[in-house]
Amino acid sequence: MDTTTFDVRTGGSFACVDVTERVAEWVRDRGDGLLHVFLPHATAGVALFEMGAGTDRDLESALDELLPREEERWAHGHGSPGHGADHVLPALVSPSLMIPVLDGRPALGTWQSIVVVDPNRDNAQRTVRLSFLPG
Amino acid sequence: MDTTTFDVRTGGSFACVDVTERVAEWVRDRGDGLLHVFLPHATAGVALFEMGAGTDRDLESALDELLPREEERWAHGHGSPGHGADHVLPALVSPSLMIPVLDGRPALGTWQSIVVVDPNRDNAQRTVRLSFLPG
Amino acid sequence: MDTTTFDVRTGGSFACVDVTERVAEWVRDRGDGLLHVFLPHATAGVALFEMGAGTDRDLESALDELLPREEERWAHGHGSPGHGADHVLPALVSPSLMIPVLDGRPALGTWQSIVVVDPNRDNAQRTVRLSFLPG
Predict the structure, then answer these.
(1) pLDDT digits over B74-131, tens only?
(2) Residues 6+ apart with CB under 8 A from B44
(3) ipTM > 0.95 for the complex
(4) Which of B117, C11, C62, C122 has its CA 20 to 30 A from that of A101?
């Protein structure tokens, strides 16, 4: 199994970071197989959705409503106000995602981008692990 | 890696389409391995839940409440009113699902069905990609 | 493909059961590959989050709000009051999770635990299936 990691900067606010290009570059010339995208973090997820048409902002506002950042709601007591919500996120937006690769290209739909979703204000850098199982 | 695609009709309203039988047919005689079910679409997901006892309607009403179809809520500006919600869906209901296969059969629980969840009123046909990694 | 199952007791109330140690023990000495964690159940999920700092309780309260256990909300008519919510859960918290394994160890982040999330009051025992694809 080939595996690698790279870092992304997610900054000090809610962030959606499109990593599609970096992922596509890594699988180039690998033929067919399954690609695993994984975040070794407890307060972020990775998802497939359309970037560039407002969905990143829509996801942020939806998550703010689904998991409100009111400090008194959360038992988790560390970090910035509302950080408890960040720890619930990966149960809903998983840090693990599998993608088919055909002829060295992620077999994504036209509007699918691979996006690191990071609501955490306290952690500005994230690691992404890619693993490839050839078919 | 063996891979194939097939199409499902999801129609012009919220749809849950049970694809368990089609998937089971495709893995028959494949022995042991892992099956990947993938939708190359930005406004649909694939999930495992019980069909036939009301959960499809319950999921629709839950999603309508979690991601309300009010046009003014969403930054995404294309499509039918509320279409912005459809674009957030795959962050919560992933278009990627892995299932163990044993002796040519999906090793599902008694009440688990493989279901394409499509809230999108604007796209009546969907493609499902199956990929099999033998063990 | 090596595969096995083990049982966990989740009891008669909402439960988050940390299975990280049992999983780690099973992959020891397996080298590199991808590990699949799967629940053959229609009313439970498996997630990666931090145990021991309140997030299990935060997830319970978040799910109680997102999928309220009011009997009249749900079309699903079996089981204890609110059991319809349990059947929607796996669409949001998937029963399928992939984890990279490096040198016989799950390549998890410091705060990630593998957790069986079971809101179902009516089913006190669950089966976990592990499958390993060597790389």
Answers:
(1) 999 888 888 999 999 999 999 999 999 999 999 999 999 999 999 998 889 999 999 9
(2) B10, B86, B89, B90, B95, B116, B117, B118, B119, B120, B123, B126
(3) yes
(4) B117
Is the minimum CB–CB distance between A46 and chain C shorter than 8 Å?
A: no
Whether C30 and chain B come into contact, CB under 8 Å, resolves to no
Phi-psi region of B86 (alpha: psi -120 to 50; beta: other; left: phi over 0): alpha
Option in C2, C42, C129 nearest B50 (CB): C42
Q: Specify whether the CB–CB gap between A106 and A7 falls below 8 A.
A: no
**Contact (CB<8Å) A109/B40:** yes
Please give, rounded to a whole number of angstroms, the shortest distance from the CA of A44 to a CA of chain B.
12
C72-120 pLDDT per residue, tens: 899 998 888 889 999 999 999 999 999 999 999 999 999 999 999 999 9
Domains of chain B: 2-134 (2.60.120.460)
Three-state secondary structure readout of chain B: CEEEEEEEECCCCCEEEECHHHHHHHHCCCCCEEEEEECCCCCCEEEEECCCCCHHHHHHHHHHHHCCCCHHHCCCCCCCCCHHHHHHHHHHCCCEEEEEEECCEECCCCCCEEEEEECCCCCCEEEEEEEEEEC
Task: Specify the pTM.
Answer: 0.98
Query: How does pLDDT run across C14-59, given as a tens digit for each residue?
Result: 999 999 999 999 999 999 999 999 999 999 999 999 999 999 999 9
